[in-house]
Amino acid sequence: MGELIWLDSLQWEPLRPDVAKGVSARTYYNSCGIKVSYVRVAPGGQFELHRDAYGHLLHFLEGTGLAGINGQEFEVGPGAVLKVVAGDEHFYCNTGEGELRLISVNL
């Protein structure tokens, strides 16, 4: 059954503290092998270079940052979408003075 979810009603939770610092998320969908989260990255925060057994779509909404996939690096900001295939080596970090915000879809 469908539902309406207000992001402000969800708690910020640290996201993957094993490979990330200054990164938290409000996860609003986690079912059938798909996870969707609204993510904020504090200034200087980062997701370290790592690999996952699942893919991602990272849709950047606010702020400025740097992202990398398989040795290529890209400046990211509002409107950028990074497609990460399962097994790709990847990272992202906040290079700005404000928060970097994005939607993360894990599939």
How is the topology of this model organized?
Layout: E1 13-14, E2 20-31, E3 34-51, E4 56-62, E5 65-69, E6 72-76, E7 81-84, E8 89-94, E9 100-106
Question: Please, what is the CATH homologous superfamily?
Answer: Jelly Rolls
Low-confidence stretches: none
Largest sheet, strands/sense/barrel: 9 strands, antiparallel
Structural class: mainly beta
Helices, by number, come to 0
Topology order in helix (H) and strand (E) letters: EEEEEEEEE
The total beta strand count reads 9
Please name the CATH topology: Jelly Rolls
Whole-number tally of structural domains: 1
Give the overall pLDDT as a whole number: 97
Helical coverage, percent range: under 10%
Level-2 CATH architecture: Sandwich
Can you offer a commentary on this structure?
Strand 1 (13-14) and strand 2 (20-31) form a beta hairpin. The chain is 0% helix and 62% strand. The chain has 107 residues and is an all-beta fold. The chain has strands at residues 13-14, 20-31, 34-51, 56-62, 65-69, 72-76, 81-84, 89-94, 100-106. It is globular, with a radius of gyration of 13 Å. Strands 1, 2, 3, 4, 5, 6, 7, 8 and 9 form a nine-stranded antiparallel beta sheet that branches. The chain has no helices and nine strands.
Q: Which structural traits does this protein have?
A:
107 residues; mainly beta; nine-stranded antiparallel β-sheet
